[in-house]
Design goal:
Elements: E1 2-7, E2 15-16, E3 19-20, H1 22-38, E4 43-46, H2 58-74, E5 79-83, H3 90-93, H4 97-100, E6 105-108, E7 118-121, E8 127-133, H5 152-174, E9 180-185, E10 187-188, E11 206-207, E12 217-221, E13 227-230, E14 233-235, E15 251-258, E16 265-272, H6 285-290, H7 292-296
Parallel strand pairs: 1-4, 4-5, 5-6, 8-9, 9-12, 10-11, 12-14
Antiparallel strand pairs: 1-15, 2-3, 7-8, 13-14, 15-16
Helix pairs in contact: 1-2
The protein binds manganese (II) ion.
């Protein structure tokens, strides 16, 4: 068996309508650490958008540093796979990446070496191959005429073709079938959007899930609502609601168990509890001030429509 904990779209350092969420983020990240401590996991995947900005705030960097250090302290043998998303600066996120591999922390931010598998061993010492695909930029791959490939669907098509070839080669070398795991940041065709995602630059951002038909399990990031793409492709979604259209939507981390021989995948959503839930109240403002519900709310942001003068 292989046990994976999946999260992504942490957006550490994000503000919600100018209110810092750093305490809320620390609160929810602690729940992930508790889960890793409580159950035996072999692999922890962060599917991109670690930070909210390419230049994260000092508080954001300090929180992610503390998060990784605490995980390493409680689970020193746990393999951790991290990729950059469209909100991250790949260069900055990859600081120290070569050294961190010694601590089982594997940060992939560049298109180079995406075909190099990371071998992870499950409870029966059977190998699993992990391939990490960070957000791919226009020009990460080139057409035959030397022009850069710009669309997400074409970039992912090249990446998955190369990975599939590398994986076939690996299975040949090892003389047996090896389950194939993917950690990727992309917008899959048919996925459910939220208001807090930023669209990719360039056109044709949607990627067909068919490109991943050869994988045993694919952990996806970018879409903020937890969702199942297929029986073996899942978005964990963001651990907190980052927009009003995510109000009243439950947030989760995903627990994935894979059987060695059958490659059967069982995915269990683990509910996360926010420090401050995002709620939407609709009605006349004057009446809200009088309701007991309003008095209990610690933070209130008015999201008012533009009022037009009826005269
Ligand atoms: Mn995101």
């Amino acid at each position: 068996m292989l046990h994976i904990l999946q999260t992504g779209d942490l957006h550490i350092g994000k503000s919600f309508h100018e209110i810092s969420l750093i305490e809320d983020q620390e609160y929810v990240l602690q729940q992930l650490i508790s889960e890793l401590q409580k159950e035996k996991y072999d692999l922890f995947l962060i599917t991109g958008d670690v930070y909210d900005r390419a230049i994260p705030s000092p508080e954001a960097v300090a929180l992610f540093d503390k998060f990784l250090s605490q995980i390493h302290q409680v689970c020193p043998q746990l393999e951790i796979g991290i990729i950059s998303g469209n909100h991250d600066s790949g260069r900055r996120l990859s600081f120290g990446a070569t050294f961190f591999t010694a601590a089982h922390i594997h940060i992939q931010t560049q298109a180079e070496n995406i075909t190099t598998p990371l071998l992870i061993y499950g409870s029966n010492q059977e190998p699993y191959a992990l391939y990490q695909i960070p957000i791919l930029q226009s020009g990460s791959f080139f057409n035959e005429d030397g022009s850069p490939i710009t669309s997400q669907s074409d970039l992912l098509s090249v990446a998955t073709t190369q990975i599939q070839e590398a994986h076939n080669k690996l299975e040949k070398e090892k003389g047996k079938e090896i389950p194939c795991l993917i950690n990727a940041h992309l917008f899959v065709l048919g996925g459910l959007k939220s208001e807090s995602e930023r669209v990719f630059l360039g056109n044709s951002e949607l990627v067909s899930p068919d490109l991943f038909s050869f994988v045993t399990y694919g952990a996806f990031g970018h879409l903020h609502k937890m969702q199942k793409v297929s029986s073996k492709l899942y978005y964990a979604g963001s651990p907190l609601s980052y927009s009003f259209d995510e109000a009243n939507i439950k947030k989760y981390a995903l627990k994935i168990a894979i059987a060695d021989a059958t490659k059967d995948v069982v995915v269990t959503p683990l509910p996360l509890t926010p420090l401050h839930p995002v709620l939407r109240l609709e009605g006349v403002l004057r009446t809200f001030y009088k309701t007991p519900q309003m008095k209990q709310l610690p933070i209130v942001i008015f999201n008012l429509p533009v009022l037009t003068n009826p005269l």
